[in-house]
Amino acid sequence: MTQPEAGAEFQALLSHPNAVVWTMSVGGEVTFISPSIERVRGITPEEAMVQTPDQIHPPESLKKSLTYFESFSKSLIAGEVPEDFHAHLDYFHRNGSVIPFEVMAVPSVGEDGIVTELRGVSVPREDL
């Protein structure tokens, strides 16, 4: 995966050793999750790719995430490039504990100006 063109903060998160890099199709399907997911959430990339949003986030973080994806979809329908996403979100660990993460995502835009995917990085906040 090529690194997205983004700001310095996004690039800094990408270079973090516990960074979980992920991509999502414009339809909402997770298309890639880096192997570091196993180290920080205790699940394999394959397991993570099939989780539903409520299996990933506790209710408050789930609401933030779903609000962004609603806005993302509306922008696409309007023919606009969605805004970048930056939030503090909690994720569930395999053992049931909750881990706070710093999350950034940027829409990837093709040469034709069409959004092709969402590229993101999630880093445990305790590691920052």
Task: Tell me briefly what this model is.
The chain has helices spanning 8-14, 36-41, 45-49, 53-56, 59-77, and strands spanning 20-25, 30-33, 85-92, 98-109, 115-124.
Overview of this structure, please?
- The protein has 128 residues and is α+β, with helices and mostly antiparallel strands.
- It is 32% helix and 31% strand.
- The protein has five helices and five strands, in the order αββααααβββ.
- It has helices spanning 8-14, 36-41, 45-49, 53-56, 59-77; strands at 20-25, 30-33, 85-92, 98-109, 115-124.
- Strands 2-1-5-4-3 form a five-stranded antiparallel beta sheet, sandwiched between helices.
- Strand 3 and strand 4 form a beta hairpin.
- It is globular and about 40 Å long.
- It starts with 7 loop residues before the first helix and ends with a strand.
- The relative contact order is 0.21.
- Mean pLDDT is 90; it is low at 1-5.
